[in-house]
Design brief:
alpha+beta, Immunoglobulin-like, 2 domains, four-stranded antiparallel β-sheet, four-stranded mixed β-sheet, 4 helices, 8 strands, 31% helix, 28% strand
């Protein structure tokens, strides 16, 4: 009982930290818009992460087992699959967590579950934003054979990183080069 309550509380903490909304086992079709204007956001991507608990008699541990990423169209509309591309054997309490990435925007700290509209908040670029651009999807979610699906979003992230880090050699070396190396590695099909 206590373990189950703790696991559910921890899920909510993870979801809040990521700024993603939880939706269990449903197709996700919606729009990505600027919260202030209601206008669609260019070059935006919807991201679904499927996760579940690894059963453990002492404490459950949340594990990501798959992802999907789709580019929204010019009206901000996206459609994500309702099921994970990879199976998740042995996990319990499975759920799909949906979020978005758009250059110059961040997810709000909370989003009502099952809300088809993702309202993103405009932000200014800083080092914290650069750190977030390095990993759009948690590494444990990405199956090597599907990494190429991240390339369009990584290229958009690279342009934003270049813009933020312009003129600052330390930031360029630390963040821009990291994203460039990741794109290069994935493009060449190299596994880390």
């Amino acid at each position: 009982m206590i373990r189950s309550i703790f696991a559910r509380v921890m899920k909510r903490v993870v979801v809040a930290a990521l700024g993603f909304a939880v939706g269990v086992g449903h197709a996700e079709t919606g729009r990505i818009v600027d919260k202030a204007t209601g206008q669609p956001i260019a070059n935006s991507f919807a991201i679904a992460i499927w996760q579940g608990d690894v059963p453990n008699p002492v404490i459950s541990s949340l594990r990501c087992y798959s992802f999907a990423i789709v580019k929204a169209d010019s009206t901000g509309t996206f459609s994500l699959p309702d099921r994970a591309p990879e199976p998740a054997f042995g996990l319990v309490n499975k759920e799909k967590v949906v979020g978005a990435f758009a250059p110059g925007y961040r997810m709000p700290t909370s989003r009502p579950a099952l809300n088809p509209t993702i309202e993103m908040v405009k932000i200014s670029g800083d080092e914290k934003r650069l750190r977030s651009l390095i990993s759009l999807v948690p590494a444990e979610c990405v199956v090597d054979r599907r990494e190429k699906e991240l390339l369009p979003a990584l290229r958009v992230a690279l342009e934003e990183a270049k813009s933020i880090a312009a003129g600052n050699a330390d930031l360029e070396r630390k963040y821009v080069r990291t994203i460039e190396r990741t794109i290069d590695r994935i493009s060449k099909g190299k596994v880390e």
